[in-house]
């Protein structure tokens, strides 16, 4: 037997063993580092927006149980009252409209009194809306603005106004984007707003990291919440269709609206996850971990469909979506 061949084989096996060992050790170190938590949770305050229902509501209850002082921004009196009944003594609510600068300013001044000299440990920009959503040609300018002023402008305004309090605590900013901030799968302002949240968060993280502030992005897949409810979605699609001119309606065909709604039903029923704790768990980790991650992508569809799809060439994404969505009767 050729001894050189034996030495080469042994060398290759040795390097493979070393490489595999390095990967395993790196993963174990990452898991350990990822599991480390901050101290003195009972002394820290967290502000959460959009707490009437859904992610924000559950997150506030969980954070309060962990020992945080939770400051919950609710849009309605009923939402605030229901949340206070469900939570403990360390949760306080304030009425907040993230589209209104005066409302945000008042919430910040109220928060400043609550946190005192300690500053604000975390802010979770969770408030958002998804409708109107549909084919881009069906939208009017005001339809885009109605979403952008909540999801994009609201996130930016809250962060900017509350930043001095976060800076004082060297705390956390957690912005809720979406997998649709990676892949623009439908028309309307939702995808646009979530792409903007991604970009804003990336810029902000790089700008203020030197002050010891972490900026984390949550990119949920599809979950069953008020945002993904089919009834209001279908109602909005009918409204958008009815405001189109007869010429535009004719270019899509009489059956297009029904086909589009059927596709939305199929997607929502097949993909939407009922366990919203997968999302709030990521938010909690971003606030409690000693070394929070830059991005979190809760949901099986996020990990297996949307995130991989976001790295594909545009032509692949275009073909995939074309196979799912119906075609207008007079399309070229």
TrEMBL record:
The keyword Membrane applies. GO terms for molecular function: all-trans-retinol dehydrogenase (NAD+) activity. InterPro entries: NAD(P)-bd_dom_sf (IPR036291), Sc_DH/Rdtase_CS (IPR020904), SDR_fam (IPR002347). Gene3D superfamilies: NAD(P)-binding Rossmann-like Domain. Keywords: Membrane, Oxidoreductase, Transmembrane, Transmembrane helix. The chain crosses the membrane at residues 14-32. GO terms for biological process: retinoid metabolic process; steroid metabolic process. Pfam families: adh_short. Belongs to the short-chain dehydrogenases/reductases (SDR) family. This is 11-cis retinol dehydrogenase.
């Amino acid at each position: 037997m050729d001894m050189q061949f034996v030495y080469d084989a042994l060398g290759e096996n040795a390097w493979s063993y070393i490489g595999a060992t390095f990967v395993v050790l790196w993963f174990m170190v990452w898991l350990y580092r990822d599991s480390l938590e901050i101290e003195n949770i009972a002394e820290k305050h967290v502000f959460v927006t959009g707490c009437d229902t859904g992610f924000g509501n559950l997150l506030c209850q969980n954070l309060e149980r962990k020992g945080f002082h939770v400051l919950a921004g609710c849009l309605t009196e009923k939402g605030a009252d229901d949340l206070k009944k469900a939570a403990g003594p360390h949760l306080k609510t304030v009425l907040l409209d993230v589209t209104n600068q005066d409302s945000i300013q008042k919430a910040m001044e109220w928060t400043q009194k609550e946190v005192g000299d300690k500053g604000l440990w975390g802010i979770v920009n969770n408030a958002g809306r998804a409708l109107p959503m549909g084919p881009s040609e069906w939208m009017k300018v005001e339809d885009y603005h109605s979403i952008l002023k909540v999801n994009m402008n609201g996130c930016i305004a809250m962060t900017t106004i509350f930043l001095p309090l976060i800076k004082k605590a060297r705390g956390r900013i957690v912005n809720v984007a979406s997998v649709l901030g990676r892949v623009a799968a439908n028309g309307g302002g939702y995808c646009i707003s979530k792409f903007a949240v991604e970009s804003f968060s990336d810029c902000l993280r790089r700008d203020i990291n030197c002050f010891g502030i972490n900026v984390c992005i949550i990119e949920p897949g599809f979950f069953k919440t008020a945002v993904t409810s089919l009834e209001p979605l279908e109602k909005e699609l009918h409204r958008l269709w009815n405001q189109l001119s007869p010429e535009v309606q004719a270019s899509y065909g009489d059956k297009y609206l029904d086909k589009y709604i059927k596709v939305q039903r199929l997607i929502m029923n097949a993909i939407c996850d009922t366990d919203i704790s997968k999302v709030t768990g990521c938010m909690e980790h971003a606030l409690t971990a000693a070394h929070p991650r830059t991005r979190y992508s809760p949901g099986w569809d996020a990990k297996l469909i949307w995130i991989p799809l976001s790295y594909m060439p545009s032509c692949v994404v275009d073909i995939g979506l074309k196979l799912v969505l119906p075609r207008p009767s007079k399309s070229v």
